[in-house]
Design goal:
This protein has 133 residues and is mostly helical. It folds into two domains: 1-80, no CATH class; 81-133, no CATH class. The chain has helices at 7-15, 20-34, 43-55, 61-72, 82-94, 99-108; strands spanning 39-40, 77-78, 116-117, 130-131. The strands form two sheets. Strands 1-2 form a two-stranded parallel ribbon. A two-stranded parallel ribbon has the order 3-4. Helix 1 (7-15) crosses helix 3 and helix 5 (82-94) packs across helix 6 (99-108). The N and C termini lie far apart (42 Å).
Length: 133
């Protein structure tokens, strides 16, 4: 059985809007934090959460990173390549880059055999093997 978590659930929890649905989420996320409930967080959902928090809710980048980093540490949260995702969030905190670029860097850094096809010269600041097609 797979249990997935949707963008709107995470958004309502992170924004703590005081709605009655939020009250139920507090207990739900406490169970996830303890590992009593296991959910899979798909990367597309994570990036959608970031986009909506940043663009619609105007949440500062630091708060987004802190909230998602905390969520990723919950025992019941499963996400593909959790270390890469956390590295991307850390890079996003440190650098003035878009989160997707930080994720790409996190995926390829550290192995010179990895190739990134891109015209974006900003990647040259990292240990990325960037090639223009």
């Amino acid at each position: 059985m797979i249990s997935l978590i949707d963008t709107n659930i995470i958004l309502r929890f992170l924004t703590a809007d005081g709605n009655s649905k939020y009250q139920n989420l507090h207990s739900f996320f406490s169970s996830i934090e303890r590992g009593e409930i296991n959910v899979e967080l798909k990367l597309i959902v994570l990036f959608q959460v970031i986009f909506v928090l940043k663009s619609f809710y105007k949440v500062p980048k630091e708060k987004i990173i802190d909230g998602l980093s905390k969520l990723l540490r919950y025992k019941g949260v499963r996400i593909k390549d959790k270390k890469i995702v956390q590295r991307a969030l850390d890079l996003w905190r440190e650098r003035n880059l878009e989160i997707v670029d930080c994720y790409i860097i996190s995926c390829i850094e550290g192995d010179k055999q990895n190739i990134l096809y891109s015209y974006d010269r900003d990647f040259d600041k990292f240990s990325a093997n960037r090639i223009e097609p």
